[in-house]
Amino acid sequence: MTALHETINRLDRELGARMRGRVARRGRIARTLAVAGGVMSPLYRIMVLALILWRPTRMRGIRALIGAVAAAMIARRMRDGIARPRPGVRAEGGLPSRHAAAAVAIAGIVAERRRRLSLPMAVITAIGLSGRISTGDHDPADVVAGAVLGGVVARVVARVGRSRSPAPAADDDEAPSVRS
Asked: pTM of the prediction?
């Protein structure tokens, strides 16, 4: 099993290095991805806060916060146990990516009952996570593992949220309409 693990690790490192090399040759794309990777986390935090503060989306925002925190904590615990070094200069491990886990959990929970948000959230998240690879913060497997973890956490949080509320929540689409 060690040989297989080493082969997968080597292939992932090579893929990450190739991706970074190709992106680096395209200056504007490299800068765009670096910015996207850097602003994704703060923007998602602001989005969760806004969801929590706006009454019709409060429960969705709370579920997104719970999902993000749970995904990041699980990723951190796994990362510390796996101890796979990052491709860049940071000392702590990178597999799975906490940013990927939290971002995908948030995106999944936000888009769960608003299907029209699924594609935009997926695209925005993918661009931000690509930025994490292009800057050398992570290799592709780090991001994929974090994304899978975040997706699982989003499904669990959404399922628990649905089982706890007998009627559809007011934040499932827009604010409920008032009929006279």
From this structure: 0.85
